[in-house]
Amino acid sequence: MAKAIGIDLGTTNSVVAFKDTSVRTITTGPDNEELCRSCVAIDKKTGEFVVGNSPYNSWKKYAPNIVVSVKRLMGAGISDEQVQKMKAQKSLYPYGIDKLAGGTDESVAVILNGKQYTPEQISAQILRQLKEDASVKLGEITHAVITVPAYFNEKQKTATRKAAELAGLKVQRLLAEPTAAAISYGVDKMGKDEEKVFLVYDFGGGTFDLSILVASGGNFIESGTGGDRWLGGDDIDKALMNYVFEQTNKEQNVDVQALIDALDDRKRFAFQGELKKQIESAKKQLSNSKAASIEIFGELETEDGDIVDIEVGITRDEFENLIRPLIQRTINLVDELLDKTGYPIETIDNILLVGGSSCIPLVKNMLVAKYGEDKILSSEKPMLAIAEGAAILAHSLSDEFECPECGEMVPKECTICPHCGAKLDKMSDDAGAEEPPIMVTYTTKHNYYIKLESGNQKIIDANELLPFEVNKKFKTSVDNQKIVELVILSDAEGGTFEKIASGFFTISDNLPIDSSLTFTFSLTENEELSAKVKIDKSGKTTNIVLGRGNKDSKCLGAISDSIQGILSDSSISDNKKAEYMSKVQESIEEISKNNFKEDANEWQDIENKITLAQNNAHAPEEADNSVSLVIAKILLGTFDRFIATDDESEIKSLISKAESSSNPMEKVVSLKKLENLTEKYSLFTTIFMFKLVAMSDSAVPAIAAQADKAYNDMMNALNRHDVDTVRNLIFYNSNVLNSMSGGIDIKTALRG
């Protein structure tokens, strides 16, 4: 395969590294810098993405269409308290943060130039830039080891893999950042027979990570992880910015934030860019000097026209008092991890400091005061070690390496280069003893739970060796249960739980309540979760398709919400509920049978069928039999040119029989056949529902207008035979149909 690289995809900065006979950082950008700002902007003139240090240094040119710290949004939910804080902190994060249109209820969108992007799409721009810069210097790049915080859960890891896929990279491994740092340190510093237990203290720009690792002869065993994904250098910047505002407010009797908000866009963005630059500069200066200052003159003024200058000095002592609680929080987390894993501090050989924020003197001073000077080691390359560790593992995982004589790639088993004839076994003479492969034994980073009516029950403990598999028995909750929803949670900060996956399965057997089901939960080495269930009575086993945060999760969430809404609606008869559940059961079985990819368009088709079944359930009893007739007539009247000729003839024939037959049985059979046939064209029915919303007197005007535009756009796309665009329009405008919480009664709506 082509060359493989290691990438530290950081919150503040990203780094790319490569290993052949040695490990080296690959410089990026026009100025060939080792650190690439994790910053993405859109050029208003060209509409092109711009990545790295250049847009960051031109903040006022690009703001508000400039994104930083997007890593904090990867796999996060819009209702997350920390996401909402980011949304409110415009001085730090000027771009828009909102719910993703057409996504799940928790999906996050980044808004640039009025257009929504997922955090994965933004991160992909950073990865693509790193890949392209490395390709210029190394040749074709196809694979990478990408580092992630140790505390990332499956949703966040899935988001990272998606970003890599969008960037054209194949992921060899997602490697925990502290493990990458330990690999870098271990390979450089440890003897072959030496064994050490490291606690890696990784204080980065957006996350704080901890890992306990046992390192021996090229083997690394993860023995425990901890930290806080919402604690990092961003919080130090915020504390320093708040100090500047407080001092200015007190000295000049103003509200600085209000004055900033009152500026026109151009001046506000320029001010915010300068403020960020000076905050960061002061933070770095206070690591080497006893004082620093933040000065911005002539940019702010009161309503009376009085100029308000920012001129705040801060000593190192004052700065350390500001951030001491943040550093103390990291030490508390160290103690929590030691207690949780049962490692007394005496068993830890060294605490290895990595990450940009670990360079702040107070960090080392407080750790030394707590654990002793001999325990603390500062990485020689705190900003580069993680990428270099990833590159070492990428090299070890590769099945090819670079000939040191001619630079061509050759298989590992070769002793003579097929390109230049060089004896490859001489590498040991030139580059020291041949290196053993790097082996990392991975462990689970979180506790996993299954959601039950009685509460959450743990199914997998943290720190289990990966891969891992466990069987758990549960029981059916009602007689003759046909549909079961499986919801998997993991633990999160503050004793909370976070939903990471969900799925459905059906039971064909008629089982009494409390019938036994055996679930098998499996985690791969990359901590990817899968599940299957065996019905103990029959022995039948079914794989459960779990949503991974894309169209799959949106569809599965819509099924869950729809089921709850229909079953709890007392106005719907038991017969109609049973008919509805039968339709849902068919859709779930279709999902299980086909195992669609997470972003497949078929998920939208399934959701369309559920919406149609929901609306049929809401239709009045007396109109129920004629709903399929109405739908059939809609298809013929509006979408006839898109329907197969044979189907069109059959629909016409069935309509005629249903309307004219004096035989009740023949009429029922015709209607049932008509219903099954028109279900093939549920996409068209869904399109027409947008028109019904646009025509509805009960729709909010803004929703009606959105529905009307969406309908026209879909019809235009259909006329171009562009079905993918139609599906995407339905996906991104799903809030239109969701707004009609009682369903859309097609027959009544047409009468109106």
Describe the model.
Mean pLDDT is 88; it is low at 426-433. Strand 16 and strand 17 form a beta hairpin. Strands 1, 2, 3, 4, 11 and 12 form a 6-stranded mixed sheet that branches. Strands 19-18-13-14-15-22 form a 6-stranded mixed sheet, with helices on both faces. Helix 6 packs across helix 12 (385-397), helix 15 packs antiparallel against helix 16 and helix 16 (602-618) crosses helix 20. It is of the alpha+beta class and 752 residues long. The longest helix is centred in the middle third of the chain and has 26 residues, at 316-341. Helix content is 43%, strand content 24%. The protein has 24 helices and 30 strands.
Strand residues, percent: 15-25%
Shape: globular
The average pLDDT value, as a whole number, equals 88
Low-confidence stretches: 426-433
- Computed Rg: 30 Å
How can the largest sheet be summarized?
Answer: 6 strands, mixed
Distance between the amino and carboxyl termini = 64 Å
Structural class, by secondary structure, is alpha+beta
Instruction: State the total count of DSSP E strands.
Output: 30
Count of alpha and pi helical runs? 24
Binned, the helix content reads 40-55%
